[in-house]
Amino acid sequence: MLEGSGSPAPREPGTSSSRRRRKPANPAAGYQVAELYVERRGARSIVGNIYKGRVDNVLAGLEAAFVDIGLEKNGFLHVDEIVLPGVEAPRRGRGGGRDGNPITELLKPGQEVVVQVVKDPLKTKGARLSMDLTIAGRYMVLAPYGEGVGVSRRLEEKERERLRKEAAKLELAGAGAIIRTAAHGAKRTDLERELLYLFKLNEVLQKRVAETAGPALVFQEADLSVRVVRDIFSKDFERAVVDDPKQHHRLLSFFSRTAPELVERVELWEDEGKPLFEAFGVEDVLASTLSRRVDLPSGGYLVIDYAEALTVIDVNSGSFIGRGKGARLEDTITKTNLEAADEVVRQLRLRDIGGIIVIDFIDMARARNRDAVLKTLRKALDQDRTKTFVVEISPLGLVEMTRQNVTEGVREIMTRPCPTCDGEGVIKSEETIAIEFERQMRDLAKETETQALLIQMNPRVSAEFTGNDARVLHAIEEETGKWFHFEGSEGLPLDHFNVLLEGEREQVLERALPFREGEEVHVEIVEPHMYSPGDAVAKVDGYIISVKGGNRYVGEKHVVRIDEVGRTAAVASLVDVPNAGGGDSTEDGDDVESKPRRRGRRGGRRRSSAKAESASAASSSD
Fold it and tell me: d(Cα 538, Cα 446) in Å, to the nearest integer?
């Protein structure tokens, strides 16, 4: 949903949804994305669905029951949501006290009940259920087990009174009804027409309940596109733009039946050169909802962090230092907080953040400024259709508020927990993992009778052992009397530890050495050599190659010939650079046929006996 200032632009006479509309160069000019409604195929929201369920367990201590409705997790039915004909249920916090029958007398395990989902399953919790069923239409909501008529409080008092009088003349047949905000300007004939439609839906519902054995779905709420236009689209909207012909036809049929005057406002996006979301800037906003940081116009920014019990929003001044020579700290802070108050509400609506929310505004010394920020926050929340409750701002600048949480937010729908950190946001450092591996290596040394072990691990972890002249590795080998060699690639998890080979030292070393003398390798020279001026360093899966005369080629890729091979490092000469130090040339100018090149990757293939000899020679000099 996009919002703009002012009133909806008048439509040209005779304009209809069936005619191709001339599109401006920038259709999103003057608008900003206010709310996002996201739903995936196969993962639709079940709020509004009605199930015939079976009571699985009744817990007197919680004053609740768990109901099997055919989903992975049982639904939660609180005693306040129990509605049974002719039975008075206790109403906690509603003046009922402990009057009426306890829940253990109202419901029994195995009993079949008809329930409606009022809150989607979130995280580890099952769906929240109610037996007070409702069937939603465009202008009104029918409550088959309710009584009386209510009118939306979002309407002006004069319009509420008019609709209340119109609804008083309706024949509800013992049911209840709620007149919705979308009924603004509706006549009694509109209400009567919709009431007949809702009665027919209720008849179908009752028939399915009688014929179906639980647990089973007996009534499914409309899909996202119909729900959005049914619940919020009104004369205050200029148009509804759809890029799918089938959905466009569905919405035209829906409005033809419920609000014919709005049919001409439904348009089909036919610009093949630019997708609808891209044209209106929705793609960028969708991507921004996944970012922790949100920048403010003056240079400040918000940081949004999600926790299990609440969401924390921190306000920072950032690069904003005030305007003009006479700028004062209090004024700078207040301006940042005022901008933040508007942006916080926008982010709450965009991301559909619910539950407990704590906003940490920058501390303000004056009570007048704190009141101004709180007033701005509440005014912005008036545009939010979701129920909210805001507590007064504290002396520390904290605002505590709640926002109704019915479905998963945009972040939960578009993402999944990181498989590496399991959603924690941090992982162990290479040094920490190396310390843990060191303990495992010492334990292995005690258990094995062989001379050497070849261990597979990530090169960034093995570098903790082989770096600084392999002092850590030498100390372990000296204490344990065993030889340790490493093999691995960057694709391995940091905590990967696996013993590939145990045996005699020559056997393990022959497998462990990544290259052999005379072999040519294509490498990227990454940095100058720390102790040898003019030389440089290349790395292949953590294995260090000192390149003679490579200092001037840092950042470039070149072919080098391996001259010396050691356990943790090798020495090489440039091959594809003329007159480079270590380069190979012949005095008589004859071409020298080089050996086949091998890409810079370690391990895996069996070594020749010639390589074993060079390996053992290298190890003796290491």
Answer: 35
120-146 per-position pLDDT tens digit: 998 888 999 999 999 999 899 999 988
- pTM, rounded to two decimals: 0.75
Please name which of 411, 405, 431 lies closest in space to residue 423, comparing C-alpha atoms. 411
Half-sphere exposure of 291 (CA within 13 A, CB side): 11
Cα torsion 119, 230, 272, 31: sign? negative
The residue written with tokens 């498989």 in the block is 419
CA-wise closest residue to 466 among 492, 146, 457, 168: 457
Phi and psi torsions of 505, nearest 5° = -60, -45
DSSP string, 69-97: -SSSS-EEEEGGG--BTTBPPP-TTTT-T
* Range among 145-149, 236-240, 360-364 rated most confident: 360-364
Q: Which two tokens stand for residue 600?
A: 């810079």
Q: Which helix (H) or strand (E) holds 229?
A: helix 224-232
Nearest to 137 by CA among 258, 293, 311, 312: 258
| Dist CA 320 CA 299 (whole Å) | 5
Q: How many helices (H) and strands (E) does the chain have?
A: 14, 29
Q: 219-231, pLDDT tens digit by residue?
A: 999 888 888 888 8
Who's near 591: CB < 8 A, 6+ residues apart? none
Q: Rounded to whole angstroms, how far apart are CA atoms 244 and 268?
A: 7
Q: Are strands 176-179 and 216-219 parallel, antiparallel or unpaired?
A: unpaired
User: 567: which DSSP letter?
Assistant: S
Alpha helices, H only, 490-544: 505-512
**Cα(214)–Cα(53) distance, rounded to whole angstroms?**
5
